[in-house]
């Protein structure tokens, strides 16, 4: 199976100032201001705060947020606890596939839950992505439109064809709120997942495109492994 790619071949651009976006607690100093669109790009839902003292050396604010999300106080955040805590700018819950992707990325010890140290990394990651989302949401609509998505991916070094951009937009756009009209665009959670998938696919392609000519020859088995490994 021969496959051609039009990627720019500069994946290292993904690591410059727009390398990732983010989310925060509504009460956090770094959360979006009320003037951002109809609210903000996304964040954590406020919860009752646990009286348990933080571990030695832990950031008290992050421990407070971790305890709030970990409603069962088990010491590890589950997929459903994380989904209940993360919301988009329109107060919709994060897409479950995005939550699972984040869990898979940050559950370093493969315990099936997110411990406090893992949560700290996840929180920083989401914070960074939130900044990127705001930067490219030019019209402050709270969602990413097609032209904004194209600009974001170009800034990461991914010069995709118009047909590919349309496909990505259609795949990750939120469902319409009513039975008519165009989709409302790509919400924060889906924007993160779309960018991570494009990055992962590009890196997988580049690993087998050893001569960097934009063409690779793959067996069916190799192709399926790449596709099925995507978040």
Q: What's the gyration radius in Å?
A: 19 Å
Q: Return the CATH architecture.
A: Orthogonal Bundle
Please state roughly what percent of the residues sit in beta strands, choosing from under 5%, 5-15%, 15-25%, 25-35%, 35-45% or over 45%: 5-15%
Count of helices? 8
Average pLDDT value? 79
How helical, in percent, are the residues?
40-55%
Order of helices and strands: EEEHHEHHHHHEH
Q: Can you say what the CATH homologous superfamily is?
A: EF-hand
Distance between the termini: 23 Å
**Number of E strands:** 5
Count of the domains: 1
Walk me through the structure.
By secondary structure, the chain is mainly alpha-helical. The chain has one domain: Recoverin, domain 1, CATH 1.10.238.10. It has eight helices and five strands, in the order E-E-E-H-H-E-H-H-H-H-H-E-H. The radius of gyration is 19 Å and the shape is globular. Mean pLDDT is 79; it is low at 8-40.
Summarize the structure.
The chain is mostly helical. The chain has 8 helices and 5 strands, in the order E-E-E-H-H-E-H-H-H-H-H-E-H.
């Amino acid at each position: 199976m021969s496959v051609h790619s039009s990627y720019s071949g500069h994946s290292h651009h993904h690591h410059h100032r727009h390398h990732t976006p983010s989310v925060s607690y509504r009460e956090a100093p770094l959360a979006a201001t009320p003037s951002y669109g109809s609210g903000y790009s996304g964040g954590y839902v406020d919860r009752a705060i646990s009286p348990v003292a933080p571990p030695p050396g832990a950031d008290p604010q992050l421990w407070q947020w971790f305890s709030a999300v970990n409603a069962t106080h088990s010491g590890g955040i589950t997929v459903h606890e994380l989904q209940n805590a993360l919301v988009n700018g329109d107060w919709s819950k994060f897409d479950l596939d995005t939550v699972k992707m984040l869990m898979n990325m940050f559950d370093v010890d493969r315990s099936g839950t997110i411990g406090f140290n893992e949560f700290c990394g996840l929180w920083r990651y989401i914070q960074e992505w939130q900044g990127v989302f705001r930067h490219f949401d030019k019209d402050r609509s709270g969602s990413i439109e097609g032209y904004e998505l194209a600009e974001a991916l170009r800034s990461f070094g991914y010069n995709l064809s118009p047909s590919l951009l349309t496909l990505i937009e259609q795949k990750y756009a939120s469902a319409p709120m009513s039975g008519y009209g165009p989709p409302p665009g790509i919400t924060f959670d889906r924007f993160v997942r779309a960018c991570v998938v494009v990055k992962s696919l590009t890196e997988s392609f580049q690993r087998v495109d050893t001569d960097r000519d934009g063409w690779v020859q793959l067996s069916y088995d190799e192709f399926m492994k790449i596709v099925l490994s995507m978040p």
